[in-house]
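Hi team,

Filling in the usual template for the complex we talked about on Friday. All components are listed, including any nucleic acid strands or ligand strings, so the model treats them as one assembly.

SUBMITTER: L.P.
PURPOSE: interface mapping
COMPONENTS: two
RESIDUES: 510
SEQUENCES:
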Amino acid sequence: MDPTTLINERVTVVAVYQKQGSHEMLCQPVKMRYKNEDISFTELGLRHPTSAGRRMIHVFDMSDGVNDYRLEFDAEGLTWTLVSMLEGHHAQP
Amino acid sequence: MLNLNSEDPQIMFLDLNSAFATTEQQARPSLRGKPMGVTNRISKHCCVIAASYEAKALGIKVGMRLDEARQLAPDFVILETDPPKYHFVYQQLTRIMKDYSPKVRMKSIDEGVIDFHGTLGTVHKRPLEDIAIEIKQRMRQEVGSWMRLNIGIAPNQFLAKTAASLHKPDGLDRIDHRNLREVYSQLKLTDLNGIASHFEARLNSAGIFTPLQFLDASSDTLRRFVFHSVIGDDWHRRLRGYETDDVETKLGIVGRQWVLANPSADDSYILPCFQYLCETTGKKLRYRGVDARGIIVWARFQTGDGWQQRRMFKTTFYTDSQIYARALYLLNKRPKHMKLQTMGITCYQLTPSARSQISLLEHVNKEEELTTAVDEINERYGTFKIYHANALAGTKTVKQKIPFGGTQYFELLLKQA
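RESULT (copied from the run log):
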């Protein structure tokens, strides 16, 4: 019933760090390798911090123009995790 | 009769309408422009707690059940709430608001008030409408392009909130003494914030059927024949644009309630959940830095009948086990053959914490030290990493809800998220 697909897998991510720009744009994933496929992100939906106990987690909601992905960067373990995805066809009228 | 307040408006009310749904659409571009909503826990009979504008346009309302919503829009998408996401947007909105005045007050997680008294002409030398447009732009640039704000400008909070509700979404309206009567002439009594069907019936019984008649009613009429208290005087002033709502409310009660998915009279099902309610109440008390002396345990049965027991104790209490022991004593007085539909616990007679006071009784000190240690562990590793074994089933059954009314427990809720 929940259209979100839980994945919870560690993934390889290419991120860019910009010297200037808004707070939201300082660090941002641009590409991810998942199941041997490269997925390029076209839009940052929202970035927000959260925590697991005292561990800081940065949540990036990304889109490749079709599907939406929730990526989490663990600032202590320095790991990227693809937590879930929402396939675009779920949102088609 | 009091004249209309002719002061230049200096109150701005900001409302992030459909806040949770709009935030989810911001985070997930594939949902933008689509009928969607959020709920606390997805199930067949769950309720929509926030709906997107597209869903509202199809007749889907907050509080509607998912199956009813799907009848109106078969492609309606529902997601579970994500408190840290909403808290981030709330923080960003608050940060932006505080750039314009030191007098900022958040009324709930999705709305707040900026009081510009003392800043216009000095810090700000431009119309409030310009500032409102800038705030809207900043929300789009600094949070996300899908974020929309309704903004109202007026001499008091009541009229500013009314102005913010005139043209949703993304509205910007001003109400002052020049257009007050015109705005009222287009509204119903229940469009006024604070007037629901009960007060509407009272006003009707006094011959008041429209906001304009409400405005023209004397203070004496409202006090003696409608509200039967000084609340009538407050309404007389509020409707005319004078501030009556800028008051700090004192913390009076702390508690928790729970609606049972399946009504039950079975203690083996109820008590773990009850213990969990007591533990979350204890966390709230300690989070607010208060102790309680009184406790109320209440229930509503499947039959629709209500029940409650209350008691004041000689000493204050704040630990989970102190609360549970006292509350259980009261709960056991309920008619046990009756199936519970809703149950709750409320602590009252709150006083600032006296936790630094060491007791003469060793077992009291031990219990308090244990509570402190458990709180510290939960603070470090996440709330409800350690809890009483009896509450185990309760932690899985009772779900935490998003607080719509206030923001005082938002930080605490996030630790549990």
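MY TAKE: Chain B is about 40% helix and 20% strand. The interface with chain A takes residues 23, 26-31, 34, 36, 42-44, 75, 77-80, 84-85, 87-89, 141-144, 380-382, 385, 414-415, 417 of chain B (CB under 8 Å).

Thanks, L.
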